Amino acid sequence: MRAVIAAAIGLAAALALVFTISAIGAPPGETSPRPLLTTVPGPKK
């Protein structure tokens, strides 16, 4: 039973953090126009 209560408290804290960050909004700034590499570049041909 203690594990269930601890899990519920942790879930409530995580949701509160997410809702707080969502209410504050995204930080100001712009995204990079260049795409990020998602794989390691191979040898050039």
Topology:
Layout: H1 2-24
Query: In percent, how helical is the residue content?
Result: 40-55%
Query: In one word, what is the shape?
Result: elongated
Helix segment count? 1
Structural class, by secondary structure, is mainly alpha
Report the major sheet: none
State the total count of DSSP E strands: 0
The low-confidence runs, each spanning 5 or more residues with pLDDT under 50, are none
DSSP strand content = under 5%
Fold and architecture overview:
With 45 residues, the protein is mostly helical. It has one helix at residues 2-24.
Question: Can I get a quick summary?
Answer:
With 45 residues, this protein is mostly helical. It has one helix at 2-24.
